[in-house]
């Protein structure tokens, strides 16, 4: 690839920005018994009366070990949505720059573009739900800052071809943001392993899916130290609260339990895939690397409503490009999946 220069991407007003320095940035505890009179906190101990670590050092240390990277390569956010928003605010000039998304895909990319007044150039996936590389590059100009690749993709469930992603990383001079929210359910290798090869690579992950912690809202951004330092300049000082840090740390230290749950979900996914193929009105079940299955049916809106009446909530994706009359089924517990299939058979 051409010589990548991050400085060309950073918004001009941020280049000389002096970030806010919080009390806990200026003094980092080494574990010694200290009297803290620096942050205007309530002094009476209740477990959360002190501000949280603004850099989430303990949690980052464990995550870095798990992923084979350094803490300096990690930024944590209040859900992945905050991480994505920071990327827009750091690298996209409102009313000037543009980004590229590949519908059908995660809807927040477009929403965040609208919020940040950044043009969203949509390049439809091909009929096999793979990126149209030639069309993507045709839509790139000197103001294209971000390219979003969701793989495994939501709502289609498939992973993008590695050759296509590598070609885009080599050809595109902006940041290639690979959203790996569902990577733990895939046999594909995480792009985190390619971090040292591509300076324009940004990988986002989450604790909401495989880690089973959607309720605590914690997203992960993995990139070069240079990119992370830019994002750290503009993130809120205490963006990940103390309760979230505590619960996340407890969970990530229990990889054995997480792996068991993922194995169970994959087992149930295989059963659900086969069962869906036996339903009369299911016309196609798409291959998936995620914890959900996309299926084309005869009438998605009708079937969605019928399942609601039976007490089952799924996702109707029929309004999405290339997804007419499709339903998205999250893989549930064994009992939940049995109830789903039983209900679908009754509707047949």
Automatic annotation (TrEMBL):
Name under which the protein is recorded: Histidinol-phosphate aminotransferase
Species assigned in the record: Maribacter algicola
Enzyme category, top tier: transferase
N6-(pyridoxal phosphate)lysine, modified sites: 209
Signal sequence range: none
EC assignment: 2.6.1.9
Required co-factors: pyridoxal 5'-phosphate
One GO term (biological process): L-histidine biosynthetic process
Domain Aminotransferase class I/classII large as annotated: residue spans: 45-344
InterPro entries referenced in this protein's UniProt entry, alphabetically: Aminotrans_II_pyridoxalP_BS, Aminotransferase_I/II_large, HisP_aminotrans, PyrdxlP-dep_Trfase, PyrdxlP-dep_Trfase_major, PyrdxlP-dep_Trfase_small
Catalytic activity: L-histidinol phosphate + 2-oxoglutarate = 3-(imidazol-4-yl)-2-oxopropyl phosphate + L-glutamate
GO function term, MF aspect, one: pyridoxal phosphate binding
Pathway(s) it belongs to: Lipid metabolism; Amino-acid biosynthesis; L-histidine biosynthesis; L-histidine from 5-phospho-alpha-D-ribose 1-diphosphate: step 7/9
Family, similarity comment: Belongs to the class-II pyridoxal-phosphate-dependent aminotransferase family. Histidinol-phosphate aminotransferase subfamily.
UniProtKB keywords: Amino-acid biosynthesis, Aminotransferase, Histidine biosynthesis, Pyridoxal phosphate, Transferase
Subunit structure: Homodimer.
SUPFAM superfamilies with a match to the protein in the record: PLP-dependent transferases
């Amino acid at each position: 690839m051409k010589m990548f220069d991050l400085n060309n991407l950073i918004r001009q007003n941020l280049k000389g920005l002096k970030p806010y320095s919080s009390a806990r940035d200026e003094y980092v505890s080494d574990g010694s018994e200290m009297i803290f009179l620096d942050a205007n906190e309530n002094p009476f101990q209740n477990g959360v009366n002190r501000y949280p670590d603004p850099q989430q050092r303990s949690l980052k240390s464990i995550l870095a070990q798990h992923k084979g990277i350094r803490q300096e390569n990690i930024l944590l956010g209040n859900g992945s949505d905050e991480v994505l928003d920071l990327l827009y605010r750091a690298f996209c000039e409102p009313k000037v720059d543009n980004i590229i998304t590949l519908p059908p895909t995660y809807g927040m990319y477009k929403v965040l573009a609208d919020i940040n007044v950044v043009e969203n150039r949509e390049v439809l996936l091909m009929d096999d739900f793979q990126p149209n590389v030639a069309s993507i590059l045709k839509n790139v100009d000197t103001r294209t800052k971000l390219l979003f690749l969701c793989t495994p993709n939501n709502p289609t469930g498939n992973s993008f071809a590695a050759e296509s992603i590598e070609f885009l990383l080599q050809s595109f001079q902006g940041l290639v943001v690979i959203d790996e929210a569902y990577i733990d359910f895939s046999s594909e290798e995480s792009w985190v392993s390619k971090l040292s090869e591509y300076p324009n690579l940004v990988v986002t992950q989450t604790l909401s899916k495989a880690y089973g912690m959607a309720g605590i809202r914690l997203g992960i951004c993995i990139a070069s130290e240079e990119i992370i330092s830019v994002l750290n300049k503009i993130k809120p000082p205490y963006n990940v609260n103390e309760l979230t840090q505590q619960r996340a740390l407890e969970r990530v230290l229990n990889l054995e339990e997480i792996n068991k749950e993922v194995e169970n979900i994959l087992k149930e996914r295989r059963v659900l895939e086969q069962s869906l193929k036996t339903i009369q009105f299911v016309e196609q079940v798409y291959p998936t690397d995620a914890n959900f299955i996309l299926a084309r049916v005869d009438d998605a809106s009708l079937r969605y409503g019928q399942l609601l009446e039976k007490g089952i909530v799924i996702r109707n994706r029929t309004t999405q490009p290339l997804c007419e009359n499709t339903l998205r089924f999250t893989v549930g517990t064994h009992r939940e999946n049995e109830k789903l299939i039983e209900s679908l058979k009754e509707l047949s």
